[in-house]
Amino acid sequence: MRFARPGIHCPPGLARRRLRRAGDHEATAPGAGISRGSPGRTRSTAEKRCHGPGTHGLLKLKLDSMRRLRISAISYLNTAPLMWDFEHGDAGAGFDISYTVPSGCAAQLSDGSADIGIIPAAAYTTIPDLLILPGVAIASRRQVRSILLVSKVPLEKIRTVALDTCSLTSVALTKVLFAKAWGGGRTFTPMEPDVERMLKSHDAGLVIGDPALRVDRSRFFTYDLAEEWVKLTGQTFVFAFWALRQAALPDASPSLDLAEIFQQSRDHGLQPENLERIARDWAPQSGLSETEVKEYLTQNIHYYLDPASLRGMQLFYACALECGCLPAAPALRFLDVTKLALAE
Question: Is the pLDDT of residue 280 over 90?
Answer without folding.
Answer: yes
